[in-house]
Amino acid sequence: MSARYTEFHPRWYRTRIPVFWWVGRRSYLVFVLRELTSVFVAWSVVFLLLLVAVVLAALRVGEKAGRLSDWQALILGITQGATELLPISSSGHLILVPWVANWRYLEEHADFNKTFDVALHLGTALAVLLY
C-alpha cells in the first residue's frame, strides 16, 4: 500500500534514505558508537553501585535500630536517579523498593518518609538543572 500524496505532501517532500546511512560515514559511526558505549558504561556503573548497596543492605552493614541506614538511603537515591527521567513513576519505586526489601523504618515514620522523598526529588531536580 503506497502513501497518499496531496498537494501539501508531494513525493519530493522527503527523499528516502537507508536506515543505516550512518554506518557508511566513519565520523557518524564513531559518534554513534561513542554515545552507545557511554550510555552502557553509565548504566553499568549505576547497576554495580546498586548491586553493592543491595549486598551491604542485605548483610545489614551500618544498620542501627530506629534509623534509615546509609545503604538504604543510597539504594533509594540510586533508584530515584535512575527512574526519575524515565516514563515510569519514580515515586512508585520509592515505595516498592522498601516494601520488597522489608525495610519498616519508612512505613513507621511517615513524616520522615515524606521529607526524604521530597529531598530525593529536589536532588534530582537540582542535578537536572545543573546539568
Give descriptors for this structure.
0% strand; elongated
What does this entry look like structurally?
The protein is mainly alpha-helical. The chain has a domain at 46-130. Helices cover 64% and strands 0% of the residues. It contains 5 helices and no strands.
Which ranges are low-confidence, i.e. pLDDT below 50, for 5 or more consecutive residues? none
- The count of helical stretches stands at 5
What would you call the shape? elongated
Q: Specify Rg, calculated over alpha carbons.
A: 23 Å
Distance between the termini: 46 Å
Order of SSEs? HHHHH
Mean pLDDT: 81
Beta fraction: under 5%
Instruction: Tell me the helix content.
Output: 55-70%
Structural class: mainly alpha
User: Main sheet, how many strands, which sense, barrel?
Assistant: none
How many strand units? 0
Quick structural overview:
By secondary structure, the chain is mainly alpha-helical. 64% of the residues lie in helices and 0% in strands. The chain is elongated, with a radius of gyration of 23 Å.
Topology:
Blueprint: H1 26-58, H2 70-83, H3 90-101, H4 105-108, H5 110-130
Helix pairs in contact: 1-2, 2-3
